[in-house]
Amino acid sequence: SMSIRALSRDFRCTEDTILNRLDRIARQGIALHCSLRPKADPTERLCFDGLVSFDRSQYHPNDIGISITAGSRFVLGLSHASTRRSGRMTPYQKEQRNRIDKLAVYENHAIERSLTEHLDMIQLERPHSAIHPLILSTDEKHDYVRAVMRHALYREQDNEHRMIHQRVPSTYARTQANPLSASNYYDREVRKDQAHHRRETVCFARDAATGMSRLYVHMVYHNYEKHYRINQPDRVTKTAAEVAGIPGTDIRLLRKQFFTQRAFLSLLKLKALDLKIWI
Prior knowledge:
Elements: H1 4-11, H2 15-36, E1 46-54, E2 61-69, E3 75-82, H3 91-101, H4 110-125, E4 134-139, H5 142-150, H6 152-155, E5 163-168, H7 181-193, H8 208-224, H9 240-243, H10 248-260, H11 272-278
Parallel strand pairs: 1-4, 4-5
Antiparallel strand pairs: 1-2, 2-3
Helix pairs in contact: 1-2, 2-8, 2-10, 4-5
């Protein structure tokens, strides 16, 4: 919940030391998560939504795509998309944005590409059938609709493989009855736990790579360390990963290796979704 500078003061070391440790633990987390993720129950409904934040300044907003299981709240993956600043601005802010636009190069359909990377991972790791179709809930953003319509999961459906795209209006109340309640829950958790994703904060991420590495560390904590429900009895210690169907013995084994054996990229087979954060 602290900024990099606050962590360096607390541990009495330099900011570079904190960043180095974050990079290392993020890569260990990628190795852990990519080994356990395929073991989750593939029949559970999925949610996808974007966490809107910014890198370096509010003139460089981003949309962090988060795919998560609806019932167990097991986060599957993260992706990053840089976008152009929009919304209400003062005349000075508009002039400043126009100066930046002359030098900046924005990726076309970045949010659509972001969801496509998640769908590629889902296609490889979560087999579906006519009896257990892939059900994906998103809001009504046009980028999400285009990404789903153009992906092989949706276009190449047949009698053996089915996909359902559920579009949820943003006007729906953010309650447990909302089909996107898992995404809304994790959005609130990140805003609470990560200093550089809070509203109106000065603890913003200085670059996209560091911000995504730190968020991946939080995702691993959420999946494999934190109790599924904070207010459940102390004797119930299941994590989101165990609720998602991943055996506890496998989690405990890899968590031990997490702190004792260094992961190497050459020994891993990462999906493009995770490889981008690693490198």
